[in-house]
Design a protein that fits this description.
Length: 151
């Protein structure tokens, strides 16, 4: 059953996704300056064999996963990739290395969770129909927002 497989894959990928999130948290970048974050995501997608386009509004990425009958329907998922100009006061091993910039808004969790979803979608693509487009959106925290520019 697909639901059970998804649960098993979630558990199997948990530690990898946690490490991705910690890496992203340590390396935050401000809106429309997410060059290293974009490269990190692109390297991950390449390693996993996921089709993607880079360079949307400079640092945005659109990944594509095709299931059975890919033309039947398409859905989109979205994750923000930028951080805020905030000094991190947390005392954790994965504290921001970029002084005055922090993922206080949770976009590190958005991005890492989406990378986990991509792994699961790719692993199960023979069990669902349609296409999933995944947008990694820059500049959510600054006007004009990255979403309107990517559209």
């Amino acid at each position: 059953m697909l639901k059970d497989e998804i649960l098993n894959l979630s558990e199997a990928y948990f530690e990898e996704i946690r490490q991705l999130r910690r890496h992203l948290h340590q390396n935050p970048e401000l809106s429309f300056q997410e060059f290293n974050t974009s490269k990190f995501i692109a390297d991950f997608l390449s390693k996993e064999g996921i089709e993607f386009e880079i360079g949307w509004v400079k640092t945005g990425i659109v990944a594509t996963i095709k299931g059975n009958n890919p033309d039947k329907k398409t859905i989109m998922l979205r994750a923000d990739i930028d951080a805020l100009p905030i000094v991190e006061l947390n005392d954790v091993s994965y504290k921001s290395k970029n002084e005055g910039v922090m993922h206080a808004c949770g976009h590190d969790a958005h991005t890492s969770s989406m990378l986990g979803a991509i792994l699961i979608l790719n692993d199960t693509k023979d069990q669902w129909e349609g296409t999933v487009k995944v947008i990694f959106q820059p500049g959510e925290e600054k006007l004009p927002g990255g979403a309107s520019l990517m559209i």
